[in-house]
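Entry type: protein chain
Record version: 2
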Amino acid sequence: QVHLVESGGGLVQAGDSLRLSCAASGRTFSSNAMGWFRQAPGKEREFVASINWIGFGTYYADSVKGRFTISRDNVKNTVYLQMNSLKSEDTAVYYCAAANGPRGGPDIGLFDSWGQGTQVTVSS
């Protein structure tokens, strides 16, 4: 497994931007796809975005397409989520996840390592 630590969450206003970071250690980072999920109070954890092992090949939930961008730096063992034009409905705990293979996607079953989560709150 891989150890994941998220950072960058906070309280912002609607329309603002935030960038989340996730630092990885342990299993070879560059061999595995990475993803971001989120969980709002009273709701199930949902897929946000994922990126394949080499950085080409990204997937996004329809709700964030065009506003969020996932990227990775395999030298720094870090994956990022740039979130623009934030909305109140983006409020959630955001989790970084590492897949058990090189290709990502929206299936939560692809991911076997999880960070502790970082809170993002968007006020309207």
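Comment: The first strand starts at residue 2 and ends at 7.
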